[in-house]
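quick q for whoever's on today - can somebody do inverse folding on this one?? i tried earlier but teh output was garbage lol. tokens:
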């Protein structure tokens, strides 16, 4: 049963039309399904939500960076970088192809504006940090780089892929169904064990209106190297009230961190929606996680993402949901 993989191709489309054609041709010759921003020539906030759903359905993410940063969103970030950040957050395996010497490109294909050039340099640095990238100089090099890199990535990090409905192998499907049944039995057993756990004794743990000092950083504008520090005393009830509604379904750990930071900053009069970066300091955040687990309010699991990678996800326990209702809902005034 032959699988086909869907690849999201992201680039600064306007200045890389020829390069994208070489990449798309290589993908189609590999029997892959390309998808990308050329489907959305007039990107806006509404289309961005649809683009995220397309990325969710893709098996791999292929990024091409040339000499321009790309069209900007209302937040001052290019849609290309927004796509990249979202793919990273979703745990999609990324292949990055960077132009080796963008300053050597023709004037129409490089950034003239100093601010845009700085944003491009920072984006290149972010993509290269902790990730193997391939470099190219000519458009005709891309076909070979894509074929080599993607073949190796598929072999090392096999994704779910796509199979025609009329090509499904009944034996393989039965094996998959049996595996799902076994996993379901494990989950049912875990659920039963959780239900059997009586109310956890929280007497030895700080909780309720007890305070914990949380600290972190934020950046007001994109591209700024200056990170502003913040530090506030927060109660455990506030923490549950801030992040609890977002944990009624599984949420990855990075998103939990950013949501907690955003809520704390808002509660203290900061306009967090306008800031590019906001997060709780990692060591403090890990303490919060362990405390909420010890109190029996949240469960943290290593789960498989849609792309087949593993990541940590948070969710409220039944006890956590009940506690959230107590601290977040509006009570009737009996006076």
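ok took a stab at it. sequence:
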């Amino acid at each position: 049963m032959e699988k086909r993989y869907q690849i999201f191709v992201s680039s600064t489309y306007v200045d890389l039309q020829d390069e994208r054609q070489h990449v798309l041709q290589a993908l189609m010759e590999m029997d892959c399904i390309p998808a990308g921003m050329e489907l959305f020539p007039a990107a806006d906030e509404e289309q961005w939500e649809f683009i995220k759903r397309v990325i969710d359905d893709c098996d791999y993410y292929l990024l091409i960076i040339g000499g321009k940063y790309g069209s900007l969103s209302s937040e001052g970030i290019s849609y290309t970088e927004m796509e990249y950040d979202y793919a990273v957050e979703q745990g999609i395996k990324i292949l990055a192809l960077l132009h080796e010497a963008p300053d050597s490109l023709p004037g129409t294909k490089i950034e003239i504006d100093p601010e845009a050039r700085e944003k491009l340099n920072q984006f290149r640095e972010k993509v290269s940090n902790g990730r193997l990238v391939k470099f190219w100089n000519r458009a005709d090099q891309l076909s070979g780089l894509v074929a080599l890199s993607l073949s190796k990535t598929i072999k090392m990090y096999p994704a779910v892929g796509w199979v025609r409905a009329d090509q499904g192998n009944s034996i393989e499907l039965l094996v998959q169904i049996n595996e799902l049944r076994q996993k379901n039995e494990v989950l049912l057993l875990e659920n039963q064990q959780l239900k059997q756990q009586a109310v956890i004794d929280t007497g030895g743990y700080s909780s309720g209106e007890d305070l914990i000092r949380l600290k972190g950083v934020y950046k007001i504008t994109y591209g700024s190297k200056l990170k502003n520090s913040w530090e506030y005393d927060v109660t455990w009830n506030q923490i549950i009230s801030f992040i609890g509604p977002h944990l009624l379904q599984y949420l990855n750990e990075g998103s939990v961190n950013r949501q907690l930071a955003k809520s704390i900053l808002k509660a203290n009069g900061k306009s967090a929606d306008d800031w590019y970066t906001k997060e709780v300091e990692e060591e403090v955040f890990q303490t919060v996680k362990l405390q909420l687990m010890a109190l029996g309010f949240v469960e943290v699991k290593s789960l498989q993402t849609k792309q087949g990678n593993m990541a940590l996800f948070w969710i409220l326990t039944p006890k956590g949901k009940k506690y959230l209702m107590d601290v977040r809902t509006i009570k009737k005034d009996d006076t």
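fwiw The mean pLDDT is 82. also The longest strand covers residues 211-219. so keep that in mind when u check it
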